[in-house]
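Is this the right way to post structure tokens for a design question? Let me know if I should format differently. Anyway, here goes:
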């Protein structure tokens, strides 16, 4: 219990220091980068009717999703445990002119201070694999949805090449810290690089530094969503194309990497998007 509490505290410190997606000179630029790097997520969001819907986003980060959805006329409540991320989400809503549609709150996904049966749609994109009690947070989402309401949750998926690479690199990073006798050696050098150039986003910082990082198989996710109906899980984005952001010398083979991503999407997808109804 104590350990979970301190991991979560470290987690909010991490996200305050590294808001998801990095820092950009304008919010519009940040939104465009997000839509370029996460195309399959936006394809899914575009399948829903948002107008006049009451939406909650659990772990909204800097608000790329909520500020996108509010432009379609949804009333959206965004929560996150990182105050710094929420500040940026607010700046974004003001810059995009959607502040009247967006409410933001610092809160913990595991213990949501909202009344039950209140939301048409609850979203959580790339968040619940970073919290200790993932299944408990999904139960909270169920509680908050109106009967017939829709959950859209993105979680990392285990058992694909990107997850194996991630686990290996995290182990390597711990080994470097052990040998050098210093904490976070790789993380700090990446952070320095990130300050010079934010175009690679925060994926690598997350990989090396985030205190809680988990992934689930489709079967495990299905179990966590057992109380929902109409559960649909799709695997997305193996993420080979993202390598270009991190290793720019791969640019000449960009279209090849894109083709590999498309070809292996459902087999090797690093993300799983779970769409389910209460
Ligand atoms: C990878 S980022 C994703 C942010 C956003 N959904 C996006 O797609 O850009 C993970 C976010 O989850 C938040 N988070 C992690 N655990 C949380 C928890 N228990 N309660 C609330 N927010 C949490 C972090 O602060 C961080 O902003």
């Amino acid at each position: 219990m104590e350990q979970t509490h301190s991991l979560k505290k470290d987690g909010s410190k991490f996200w305050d220091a590294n808001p998801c997606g990095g820092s950009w000179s304008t919010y519009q630029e940040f939104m465009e980068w997000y839509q370029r790097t996460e195309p399959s997520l936006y394809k899914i969001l575009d399948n829903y009717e948002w107008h006049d819907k009451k939406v909650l986003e659990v772990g909204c980060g800097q608000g790329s999703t909520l500020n996108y959805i509010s432009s379609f006329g949804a009333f959206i409540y965004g929560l996150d445990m990182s105050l710094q991320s929420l500040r940026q989400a607010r700046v974004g809503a003001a810059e995009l002119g959607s502040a009247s549609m967006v409410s933001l709150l610092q809160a913990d996904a595991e213990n949501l201070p909202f009344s039950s049966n209140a939301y048409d749609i609850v979203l959580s994109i790339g968040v619940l694999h970073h919290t200790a009690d993932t299944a408990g947070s999904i139960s909270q989402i169920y509680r908050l949805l109106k009967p017939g309401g829709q959950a859209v949750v993105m979680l990392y998926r285990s058992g694909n090449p990107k997850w194996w690479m991630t686990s290996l690199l995290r182990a390597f990073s711990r080994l470097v810290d052990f040998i050098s006798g210093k904490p976070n050696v790789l993380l700090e050098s990446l952070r320095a690089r990130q300050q010079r150039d934010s175009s690679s986003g925060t994926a690598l910082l997350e990989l090396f530094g985030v205190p809680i990082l988990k992934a689930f198989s489709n079967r495990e996710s299905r179990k966590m969503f057992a109380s929902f109906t109409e559960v649909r899980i799709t695997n997305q984005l193996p993420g080979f194309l993202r390598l270009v952001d991190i290793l720019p010398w791969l640019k000449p083979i960009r279209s090849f990497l894109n083709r590999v991503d498309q070809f292996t999407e459902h087999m090797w997808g690093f993300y799983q998007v779970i769409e389910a109804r209460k």
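Format looks fine. Someone answered above. Worth noting: The CA atoms of residues 4 and 188 lie 24 Å apart. The longest strand covers residues 145-156.
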